[in-house]
């Protein structure tokens, strides 16, 4: 009995030590594994429609222009905060808000601000960020990490696909995915700053940040789900995918994929009306 008790205590101790040795950003990735997977699937399907023309692509980008503008503004305003001040030091090499503006000007023209507006899901997210800044600013750590690293990691794939699908000239329409330094090095800087910031938090606060990290994917999914598509968009999206991603030696597979995407689009529209 004594041996069993000692074994249980040893197991608990080992678990606690493993958590202490694990970087906070690793804990974040583990906490959001399922949410991340489902969010990626949704983003990938909607991007197929966005890539059908520059106007649609610009409209999709504009949704997150508002988010990054607000988020980076909050972090800058909190540059003297003992936790978030570490993140504000990264802003000069980030500057995603201005990069969004460069892309939207190119994709939608000089009147893009008059033509774009924040939909309800975006406004809800913006309100949430403002509330966090006023009440629990340290939770902005989760939003900064999730959005900025997501832009760095997934953005490089989106950049290549967007250029090929829409025949974009070099460095035009994809500024939001371009960085002054190598993306991998920028990401390392963000990870290091977030881990250092998390060290300033109590265990209870860290748990709240982990929960907030998962919530970010919920906000993103709501925003992306609200990106409107029509029945005719799906065949175009399927054709774009077939000609952009697949080679000429996979024509049979491309036809199958096109049919599948069109069917998925029909089912999506049917469910939205039920």
Question: Could you give the topology of this structure?
Answer:
Blueprint: H1 2-21, H2 24-31, H3 33-50, H4 54-77, H5 85-88, H6 91-94, H7 96-108, H8 112-115, H9 120-135, H10 140-166, H11 183-198, H12 203-225, H13 233-244, H14 251-272
Strand content: under 5%
Q: Could you tell me how far the N terminus lies from the C terminus, measured between alpha carbons in angstroms?
A: 59 Å
N-to-C SSE string, H for helix and E for strand: HHHHHHHHHHHHHH
- Extract low-pLDDT stretches: 10-16, 246-274
Main sheet characteristics: none
Nearest-angstrom radius of gyration?
21 Å
Structural class: mainly alpha
Summarize it.
This protein has 274 residues and is mainly alpha-helical.
General description of the model:
This protein is an all-alpha fold. The chain has 14 helices and no strands. The protein has helices at 2-21, 24-31, 33-50, 54-77, 85-88, 91-94, 96-108, 112-115, 120-135, 140-166, 183-198, 203-225, 233-244, 251-272. α2 crosses α12, α3 (33-50) runs parallel beside α12 and α10 packs antiparallel against α11 (183-198). The termini are far apart.
Main attributes?
single chain, 274 residues, mainly alpha, globular, disordered C terminus
